[in-house]
Specification:
Number of helices: 4
Radius of gyration: 20 Å
Number of strands: 2
Number of domains: 1
Largest sheet: 2 strands, antiparallel
Shape: elongated
């Protein structure tokens, strides 16, 4: 971010910003000294494991048990 003229955060400064800014709480799932996990990243990881609504809907659409 240094080449973008953006603010550089340390763990302490990000922690303070997270605790004081409700908008960050809406997008950050977890953070530590090495990474910040966004809520969207968590949703994408869950969908990659096959927990998608589309998969469930497709299974229900092809279920023919109730047609007999």
């Amino acid at each position: 971010m240094g080449n973008m003229d953006a603010t550089t955060y340390t763990y302490s400064s990000f922690d303070a910003a997270f605790k004081s800014n409700p908008a960050l709480k809406n997008i950050v799932d977890n953070y530590n000294g090495k990474e910040i996990v966004l809520i969207k990243d968590k949703e994408v990881a869950a969908k990659a494991k096959g927990k998608s609504d589309v998969k469930k809907m497709a299974k229900r659409a092809t279920d023919l048990k109730d047609l007999n």
